[in-house]
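About this split. The held-out portion is used to measure sequence recovery: a designer receives only the structure tokens and must propose an amino acid at every position. Recovery is the fraction of positions where the proposal matches the reference. Here is one held-out target exactly as it appears in the evaluation file.
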């Protein structure tokens, strides 16, 4: 058991480092390609498959000793070895949170790890990597890029397929999955249309459908939306009351949706069972 925790921690730290690189490179690529004369050499250096890790400030290639998650940042006291400029604390925070999510998902996984659940768990860990990237990107630039959303949609689809194939009643599982996507994306689509995109962005509509595909049932989709709205209110209302936010401030909703998805995936079954026993005790 200890070895599993250690392995998940190391994987989480490593993929957290990847998330930081992914977010920065996707943003730099988007910015560079908007230029009238994009620097092709720089774009090549930004390639996720071929580009080498570099300082986000001076663009100096990093040595292996600069790439140790958390430890490198601490040893350098949050500064680049080559230019001396400050490296954001985002880097170690994302790495540590990713590791915590990997380990926490294993500890609180709601069902036994049989054959299909092992596959689903691996897909879930892959989804967590993308979720972390979306959270960071949305918090920094108020955008949920398709460059990250598309592969996540594929992973979510694979997770849904494995879940359906392993289900005792596959047809019911298919119906539940379809309804979960309709609920997850449909509510946000209606809000988007009703407000002409002022209340919620198009990226949130796509994300809602994607997350519905992940959680797999309409009840869990509704719980996801409720949890996200509750988290958003708990964060934004105190900030509005203390004037840290203005009434016209834009608050990214994507991070709340993703955090709610993690809560629902790990604890949704227990929450729904508690709700049924507490408020609907006489239902079958």
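Reference sequence for scoring:
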């Amino acid at each position: 058991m200890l070895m599993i925790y250690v392995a998940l921690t190391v994987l989480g730290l490593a993929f957290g480092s990847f998330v930081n690189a992914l977010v920065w490179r996707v943003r730099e690529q988007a910015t560079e390609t908007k230029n009238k004369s994009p620097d092709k050499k720089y774009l090549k250096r930004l390639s996720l498959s071929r580009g080498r890790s570099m300082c986000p400030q001076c663009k100096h290639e990093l040595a292996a000793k600069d790439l140790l998650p958390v430890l490198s940042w601490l040893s350098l006291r949050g500064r680049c070895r080559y230019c001396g400029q400050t490296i954001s604390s985002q880097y170690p925070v994302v790495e540590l949170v990713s590791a915590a999510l990997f380990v926490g998902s294993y500890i609180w996984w709601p069902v036994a790890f049989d054959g299909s659940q092992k596959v689903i768990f691996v897909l879930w860990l892959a989804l967590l990597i993308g979720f972390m990237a979306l959270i960071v990107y949305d918090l920094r630039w108020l955008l949920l890029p398709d460059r990250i959303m598309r592969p996540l949609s594929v992973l979510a689809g694979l997770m849904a397929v494995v879940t359906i194939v392993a289900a005792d009643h596959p047809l019911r599982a298919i119906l539940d999955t379809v309804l979960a996507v309709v609920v997850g994306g449909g509510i946000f689509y209606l809000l988007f249309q009703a407000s002409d995109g002022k209340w919620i962005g198009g990226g949130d509509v796509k994300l809602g459908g994607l997350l519905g595909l992940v959680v797999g049932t309409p009840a869990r989709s509704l719980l996801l939306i409720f949890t996200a709205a509750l988290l958003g209110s708990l964060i934004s209302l105190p900030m509005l009351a203390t004037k840290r936010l203005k009434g016209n401030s834009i608050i990214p909703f994507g991070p709340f949706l993703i955090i709610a998805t993690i809560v629902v995936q790990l604890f949704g079954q227990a929450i729904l069972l508690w709700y049924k026993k507490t408020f609907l005790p006489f239902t079958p």
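Annotator remark: The chain has a mean pLDDT of 92.
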